[in-house]
C-alpha cells in the first residue's frame, strides 16, 4: 500500500511541476517576467514559513553555516533559477514542453557540479559521455545554429539552460555546506530571500506593478504557481525524498515534461516539436549513464524487497 501511495504522490508531483511550465507561460501574458516570479515566491515563502513554524522547532537559521545555506538557496535555487526561467519562457517560440525538457537537464548538471566541487565525487569516462550526451540533447532541442544564434528561440532556451545550471549548482553548494537546518526552514527563508532579490532585479529592469493585468486568468496562474507548484509541490517532494531517496525522486524531472506537453497542448494549443522529443531522449540517456550505479543499486534493492520470503 505504501508503494502505491508513493507512486500516486510521484505522479501528482510530476503533474503539478510539469503543468507549472504551462502556468508560467499563461501568466506571462499578464505579468512582467521577473516581477511575476517574485510575486510567486512572496506568497509561497509566507506559506512555507508557516509550515516550517508548524513542523519544526527551528523556524530561523541559527549560525553562519545555516545562513550560508539559506543565502545559496535564495540566490541560486530561487532567484537565479526562476528569473532566468521566466524570462526564457517569455519567448513565444519556447513551448512549455521545451522549457521542461531543458530544466530536466538539472539532475545531470548536478552530478557534474558534484564531481567538481565535492572531493569524494569523481567523473568516470562513462560519466563524461553521459554529460556530453545530455549537452548534445540541449543543443538539439535549442536547434543550435552557430551562424545564427538568434534563430529558433536559441537564446531563450539557453537562458533556461542557465536556470537549470543555477539550480544544479545551488543544490551541490547547499550539500557542501551541510548545515543542520531543517529543509522546510531552509526552503522558507530561501523563498523569502529569493523573492526580495527578484524584486530588486525587477525594479532595476524597470518592471512595475502598473503593468500587471489582474483578471481571472492571471490570478489563477499566480495562485497555481504559488500554492500548488511551490507550497504543495515542495511538501510532496520532501515526503518522497524521505521515502524514495534522491535517485528515484530525480526521475520527476523526466516525467514532468510529459505533463508540461499535455498541459501546453490542452490549454495553450502548443504542439511539441521533433527536436523537443530528440533532445529529451538524449538528456535522459545522459542521466542514465551518469546515475547507472545508483540506479542499479536501487533496482537491486527493489528486487530484494519484492522477493518472497521463506520460513
From TrEMBL:
<feature type="transmembrane region" description="Helical">
    <location>
        <begin position="67"/>
        <end position="88"/>
    </location>
</feature>
<dbReference type="GO" id="GO:0016020">
    <property type="term" value="C:membrane"/>
</dbReference>
<feature type="transmembrane region" description="Helical">
    <location>
        <begin position="94"/>
        <end position="116"/>
    </location>
</feature>
<feature type="domain" description="EamA">
    <location>
        <begin position="158"/>
        <end position="290"/>
    </location>
</feature>
<keyword id="KW-1133">Transmembrane helix</keyword>
<dbReference type="Pfam" id="PF00892">
    <property type="entry name" value="EamA"/>
</dbReference>
<keyword id="KW-0472">Membrane</keyword>
<feature type="transmembrane region" description="Helical">
    <location>
        <begin position="186"/>
        <end position="206"/>
    </location>
</feature>
<feature type="transmembrane region" description="Helical">
    <location>
        <begin position="218"/>
        <end position="237"/>
    </location>
</feature>
<feature type="transmembrane region" description="Helical">
    <location>
        <begin position="154"/>
        <end position="174"/>
    </location>
</feature>
<feature type="transmembrane region" description="Helical">
    <location>
        <begin position="274"/>
        <end position="290"/>
    </location>
</feature>
<feature type="transmembrane region" description="Helical">
    <location>
        <begin position="38"/>
        <end position="55"/>
    </location>
</feature>
<dbReference type="InterPro" id="IPR037185">
    <property type="entry name" value="EmrE-like"/>
</dbReference>
<feature type="transmembrane region" description="Helical">
    <location>
        <begin position="123"/>
        <end position="142"/>
    </location>
</feature>
<protein>
    <submittedName>
        <fullName>Permease of the drug/metabolite transporter (DMT) superfamily</fullName>
    </submittedName>
</protein>
<feature type="transmembrane region" description="Helical">
    <location>
        <begin position="249"/>
        <end position="268"/>
    </location>
</feature>
<dbReference type="InterPro" id="IPR000620">
    <property type="entry name" value="EamA_dom"/>
</dbReference>
<keyword id="KW-0812">Transmembrane</keyword>
<feature type="domain" description="EamA">
    <location>
        <begin position="9"/>
        <end position="142"/>
    </location>
</feature>
<dbReference type="InterPro" id="IPR050638">
    <property type="entry name" value="AA-Vitamin_Transporters"/>
</dbReference>
